[in-house]
Every structure is written in structure tokens, then in C-alpha cells.
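Researcher: I've been going back and forth with a colleague about how Acyltransferase might be arranged in three dimensions. Neither of us has a model we trust, so I'd like an independent prediction. The organism is Adineta steineri, in case that matters for your notes. Sequence below.
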Amino acid sequence: MTTQVKPSLVTDEVNESKGSSNPSTSASNDRIFAPLNIPWYRRCQTLTLVIWWLSPWYCLYLTFHLLFFDRWYSTICILLYMAWMYLFRTFPKTGGHRQQWLRKLIWWEWFSDYFPIHLHKTCDLPPDRPYIFGYHPHGIIALGAFGNFATEATGFEKLFPGINARFLVLNSNFQIPFYDLFLTMMGLCDASKESCNYILKQGKGNSIVLVLGGSKEALDAHPSSKYLGFEKLFPGINARFLVLNSNFQIPFYDLFLTMMGLCDASKESCNYILKQGKGNSIVLVLGGSKEALDAHPSSKYLLTLKNRKGFVKVALTNGASLVPVFSFGENDLYDQVPNPRGSKLRSLQMSLQKMMGYSLPLFHGRGIFQYKIGLLPNRHPINTYVGEPIEVPKLAPELITSQLIDEYHTKYMDALTHLFDTHKAKHGDVNSSIVFVDDPSR
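Model: Here is an independent structure prediction for Acyltransferase. You can compare it with whatever you and your colleague have in mind.
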């Protein structure tokens, strides 16, 4: 039985002033400019997305201003801070410094109501073990994953009591001074193997959430609330959202990220969090940045998962159950320039991804005062389903074989397909499907 807590106000660009429901994105609407009589709460929703987009850039500006254009003591302070960031900082890989007061601000309620985001619980998750949540699809920037697992706007901890889930992201997210602190306070962590192992070894209930497809899956992402309640649906589940380490390299922004509970998505971070005890979990967008290249609105979801098996080995090392998570609507938030596999544009994007560590999908959404082009996402409902867990034994490294990894990898893909097929008729084309594709760099 599916449970949903406190559905958000349903919004749509066509009836901006009425707040009525319509699954279409703004790209398909005839209206170009926003009407003047839009209610204040909808303006607040848009404002949250604008500030969310600008926050890392503001942190970069603040860093350079203090470094080159302020008083001498400001320069010394920022140099000391950056030295600490690059030489001594460990929190992106050790579970972050999540601050619940920050994650529960009404600000994030507006963030979730913008789309809106709905979280659906399909079963209970006992907090007597660690979990790895695999989030699909990546979309352009995994906004559904952020809303569900990096904030309490969907009340994850009340829905899954005892589960301490961390959202893991690329380490590059932690390279922005100050922005890295924001990420870790939000509960995000580095999506490295070390980070995964650390979290999963913290004890029962510690979990991670992974966006498995990565940024390359975003290249195939093309379109075809109030408190929603993760905390209420899963009380006791302490989830950590893991992101690229580069997010923690921006001064000040790193502080914001760590307060939100975000962590570095490295192997060290995963292992550290999962070893912290009952209920500690990690959230990984398993497709990663490569999957972002496949983020097109379509009835066919291309998921970069076929030869991505490292998360299974982490699960076997820590005895963490695997939980598939699928979000309908994630790929409909932006329109992306066509980039079929084998095209010149796709080849260029893949080359840039190899050099920089993350992909560069060419996309557009809507603007602040008009609906045809801009960096803000289109208003489109995101419905996230948390599937049934796959129990995984805890084994010594020498006992983990490639055959065993393949076995649980197949079980995970089958469970994800079942979750998708069970709920797809509620949110679009009954004939829609998911296709598992290889990561071409492996």
C-alpha cells in the first residue's frame, strides 16, 4: 500500500494565478510572460529556486571579493579558511554536520511546493540495518532527490523512523568555499567509496541515497507542498545525501551544504557513514553525471546502470540493504538539446566529462518573468516512490566475488523495474519503459 503525507499545492504555469493542477511543463504552454496577479506564495516558491541556483555563484563572488578587494585581515582569514578546506577538512567523507533546524525551514516547503514534490512510501523500512537508497533517474540536476533527502520538506525521518539517510554527491560540490558548509549542514556527503563505507559502518539504520546514473544520464533526460513527509513516512531513518566533492570546494557554500547534511560521494564517505550504527543510510543518484546526458522528457527512461556495480560491493561490505527509488517527472523539469548517442554533440560532451569529471548537458527551463527560456526548472509534479528493500549479507572483502555482485546487481535492476511498472500508469504513459544502458567510460 502506498502512503503519501501532506501533498503539496499543485501548481502549473498555464493557470499561474489559480494554482490548478496540470502535468504539462511550461515549455508546452502558449503563455510567454507571467501574469501580474500571481499570488505571493507562488512568488516565494520561485524566489527559493532563484536563490538556490545563485547560492554557489554568490559564494564564489564572496570568496574573490574577500580575497582581492577587501581589507588585509579579510584576505588572511579567507586564505586560512581555504587552507583548512583543502588540507584538514574531513566532514564531507564522515557524515557531514547536518542541522535539522536548517533542513526544516519553511523555505524548503516553498521549494517543494514549486513543482510540487510528492513522496510515496510503499513499505516499512525496519531501522535495524543500514540502507543504500538508489535514486533514479538523475535528470538534469536531481531536484527531486534534493527535495526529498536533503531537506525535511517531505518529512523522510517521520515516515521512516530510525533511518539516518545521507544524500551523497560528487566531491566537486564541496570545493566551493562556504557552499561546502551549507551542503554538509543540509546532510549531504561526498559520493566516494570511502564515504559510503564510513556511513554504512556506523550501525543499524545508517543509510545512503545514490543517484546511480550520474551526470551522463542527464544527457538523456528529455521531457515525454507543504511538508510531504519523508520523516513522517520513515521515522528513524537517518538518510545522508551524497554529492560530488567539487560541491565542497566553494568557500561558505561548503558550510551550507554540510549543515544541510550533504556528504562527499566517495567510497570512504560511504563506508564511514554506514558504520555509524542503526538507521544510518546513504542516498546516491547512481546514474551520476553521465546519466544527465540522457535526461530528456520521454516515455523511455535511459538509466546508466547496466555496468555500474560498485554500490553493490559497498552494500556487501557493510551488509546494507538496497532500496530502489524512482521519481516520475524528474526528466520533465528541463528541455535538453537533442544529443543522441553517437552524435558529434554527444561525443564532445563525453570528452568534456572525462576531462572535468561531470557532464555539460545543454538545457533550458523557464525564467523568472517568462516561461520560454531560462535556468529555472519548469513547474512539473515530481512523484517519488521508495521501493521494497533487498536484503544483502555482510561479507569479508575476500568472500565478495564477481558472481555474487552480479547476482545482487540483477536483483536490484529487477526490483527497480518492478517499482517502475507498478506505478507508471498513475503518472503518464502506461507503455513507458526503462532501459538500462552501459557507462561508456567503463
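Researcher: What would you highlight for our discussion?
Model: I'd start with this: The chain has one domain: 3-50+89-437. After that, consider the following. The mean pLDDT is 82.
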